[in-house]
Specification:
Blueprint (H helix, E strand, L loop, with lengths): L1 E6 L2 E4 L4 E9 L5 E8 L6 E6 L6 E3 L7 E6 L4 E6 L8 E9 L14 E2 L3 E6 L1
Parallel strand pairs: 2-11
Antiparallel strand pairs: 1-3, 3-8, 4-5, 4-9, 5-6, 7-8, 9-10, 9-11
Length: 126
């Protein structure tokens, strides 16, 4: 089992920045890929970004490319999502998710991830 805890959400004005953190605990000795997803009120959960176990491979949704950066510090068992140039349409609950994997494959479907955090709210005001 892997437990995930997100932090760093909050209220920010459009154009501002936030950095989300996803801290993992439990059986983290094996490699695992991590994805960030978000769900706005009344909408389906959507993929935001993902990173493989080594951090060498990343993937982004088109809507956040060039604005968001995903990274990880395996020594701290933590994955980060740096969000810059935030827009009101980025408002959502952000979830991190993990899947056991030692490959470079990083899926964008939420059904491919086994473990989920509780989510952190990000609100961007106009």
């Amino acid at each position: 089992q892997v437990q995930l805890v997100e932090s760093g959400g909050g209220l920010v004005q459009a154009g501002g920045s936030l950095r989300l953190s996803c801290a993992a605990s439990g059986r983290t000795s094996n490699g695992y890929g991590v994805g960030w997803f978000r769900q706005a009120s009344g909408k389906e959960r959507e993929f935001v970004a993902a990173i493989n176990w080594s951090g060498r491979t990343t993937s982004y949704a088109d809507s956040v490319k060039g604005r968001f950066t995903i990274s990880r510090d395996n020594a701290k068992n933590t994955v980060y999502l740096q969000m810059n140039s935030l827009k009101p349409e980025d408002t959502a609950v952000y979830y991190c998710a993990a899947r056991p994997s030692s490959s470079g494959y990083i899926p964008q479907s939420h059904s491919d991830y086994r473990y989920w955090g509780q989510g952190t709210q990000v609100t961007v005001s106009s």
